Amino acid sequence: MLFNSYFFIFVFFPVTFFLYFFLSSKKLTFAAKIWLAGASLIFYGWWNIAFFPLILISIAFNYGIGVSVGRNQKVPADLRKFLLVFGIVLNLLLLGYFKYYMFFASNVNLLLQMPIFYFIHARLVIFNIILPLGISFFTFTQIAYLADSYRGAAKEYSLLNYILFVTFFPHLIAGPIIHHKEMMPQFDSLRNKILSHENIRAGLLLFSIGLFKKLILADTFAVWANYGFNKIVDLTTVEAWLVSFSYTFQLYFDFSGYTDMAVGAALFFNIKLPINFNSPYQALSIQDFWRRWHMTLSRFFMDYLYIPMGGNKVGDIRMYCNLMATFLIGGIWHGAGWLFLIWGFLHGVASVIYRGWTRFNFKLHFLAAWAITFGFVNFTWIFFRSKDLSVVKNILGSMMRFSGGQIDDRKSLFSIPYGRHFLHWNHLGSPINHRTAMFVVFGFIIALGFTNSNKIVARLNHHLGWAVLTGLLFAVSMLFMVRNSPFLYFQF
Fold first, then answer.
1. Identified catalytic residue from 179, 294, 334, 347
2. Domain boundary, last residue among 194, 210, 234
3. What does the DSSP assignment read for 141-152?
4. CB count, 10 Å around CB of 16?
């Protein structure tokens, strides 16, 4: 079920909301939790009912392991550690089968075709596997729960509470990735069973901002990004740059829009999800970027991968290896493909260079620091979006207009003859035009000139401006509701 659909906005969400607080007002707290958990499971099963048993089995398994590895004196320490490893491994195997088996099998079969393996005739069977929606997110959420239980950071709540923790529909499909200890006290708070008009106002404004980002901005940029990345023939130089910027802003507004809607929807239920997005394109370093982009995923890799490997408390060489390993795993987490690995590798290299750079105490002017950071992020998104290296070559080659290894002065963006023909810089029939350029400028203004959505909501929540802005954003978004496109992070 999509946040940006008529059914969710006008049927599922209001019915879930009003019935939850109706039951809570009658002091039927247990029934209210059952209803919210059940509605969240319906939300998940709406996409494909075939995977409904999968999430239920995953929840039951992880809840049992979590209770067993908790600070339970009846379970020996060695057995607790074994159960923790066993639980994490099984979660990763489940994720690996659905997300990576086809990638693994196709590459193994390709390797076995090499002459050195001519005596091996066996091949792995390749079959189409449908990726369950949100499996990366609910798997990581539960791995974090197992680790927190083992450390004693998560108490053993009831099975119903645990189901609600995993399935709460605002975060279920694409995050934020949450911790048990930061969520369950909120669900158990008696104050949160009472309607909060302040939270409803904030949630409605935040949801409307996210809806506008998705329908008006992200889906508009998607037209130009899809055209450029799916185009076989070469793009002109200006087209290629606009295509790269279009995807950079499509992904930005799509993901930040989803996060705004998720946090806003949760606020209706008096639940505060962790902030997952903090104006990342304003970052002045690659480290700063990852502190702002998909913040809960960065937190997960920091807490459960980078620090357990030794973090920065080991020697420099090992620290750099830890950084590279973290970013490589982060790359492959996003998708089963070599280009995702390359994308992670590039960010790992940039992080290593930045760590080395800071050792010398060199300071860059903030404009230079921003330009280098944004330019690198924009460059690497091309690998992230492309389906194969030929697309990467097409986009990057067109951006610099390389011809036989040399820059073609007749078509280069920086050449004087090209500047004279600026009004005719796009292919015949191409959707990329001056409107694209204006939208890109608009994207820069919003991404660089505006603060985090949560801060905007906090400032307007007590003023009449919140109602005006909410109504305007929501009304404009409704005009574009026909463009029912899924969120980009659904595929991860």
1. 334
2. 194
3. HHHHHHHHHHHT
4. 22
